[in-house]
Design goal:
The chain is of the alpha/beta class and 274 residues long. It is built from eight helices and twelve strands. The radius of gyration is 21 Å and the shape is globular.
Length: 274
């Protein structure tokens, strides 16, 4: 890269860091990239760090020593995240979103890249300090959420299928009981998709009793993998504690009331904001 003026270098360095979250970048790499002295690079990073923290973009963590450098960790301030989720809750309360069984139509929201970016950053902020190797979701509506989260954690995504595909090669399949419908269903994961003993973050769009997520947890046991965390976009608050199959999770929104007759819906911020 050609030598840049300091103002241009600051812009380029900021973009470089934003595109590589949770990646350790050495001062030497920056100095060589911008053909500048390490002292100048350090001054630039101090400016970027201050702006990131003031604006709530994230933390720029410095690691000292010969193998050190800087690592950008995306964050989402709770008050800013809450403001966004409240607007999402109001959108979810529209009566025409109500589906049979007390479910909500959310596909249009899951198809909005800007919203998924913000939700992904919320999940990434919530789980930023955990050691995670991979993000898992089940097809299909959890996929946009998983990839948005993966972007900010800089992690790969594995997708659990409802039906095994021959193009996936050999796979591990299990039967699980849907927590709400009490039906036996099947899910599978290709053997090549996940290394044994991986630490996995599960992301899903909607949780009622937690049967699908519990199925993914059981599937991970077949890979000797560890569940590092569970993130849910919307959870149903109509399921009692004893009925719920999963209790250790983070939710961004909570469906607290559904009246099928009046089509009245109440959605509140989830336990992430408690």
């Amino acid at each position: 890269m050609k030598k840049l003026k300091r103002s241009a270098r600051l812009v380029e360095m900021t973009q470089y860091l934003l595109a590589r979250p949770h990646t350790l970048i050495s001062l030497t790499a920056f100095a060589e990239r911008y053909q500048s002295a390490k002292s100048s690079i350090s001054e630039d990073l101090a400016i970027i760090k201050e702006v990131f923290e003031e604006e709530g973009v994230g933390d720029l963590m410095t690691l000292a020593g010969a193998a050190g450098g800087v690592r950008f960790v995306p964050r989402y301030r709770k008050e800013q995240a809450l403001e966004k989720i409240v607007s999402v809750c109001r959108e979810l309360e529209q009566p025409d979103r109500l589906l049979p069984g007390g479910y909500l139509y959310m596909t249009d929201l899951l198809g909005q890249p800007g919203l998924m970016q913000e939700v992904g950053r919320m999940f990434a902020s919530a789980f930023a300090d955990l050691h995670i190797d991979v993000i898992m979701t089940v097809e299909t509506k959890g996929i946009p959420l998983a990839f948005a989260t993966a972007q900010f954690l800089n992690l790969p995504v594995v997708i659990v299928r409802r039906d095994h595909k021959v193009t996936e090669g050999s796979a591990v399949s299990i039967n699980y009981v849907s927590g709400s419908a009490k039906r036996i269903q099947t899910m599978s994961l290709a053997r090549r998709a996940l290394k044994e003993e991986s630490r996995v973050l599960i992301i899903d769009d909607f949780m009622k009793a937690g049967g699908t997520i519990q199925g993914m947890v059981d599937l991970l046991h077949e890979f000797r993998a560890v569940v590092a965390g569970v993130g849910v976009f919307v959870e149903s608050g109509e399921i009692g504690y004893d009925e719920r199959l999963l209790h250790d999770y983070i939710s961004l929104a909570r469906l607290t009331e559904v009246d099928l007759k009046t089509r009245h819906i109440t959605v509140q911020p989830g336990n992430f904001f408690s």
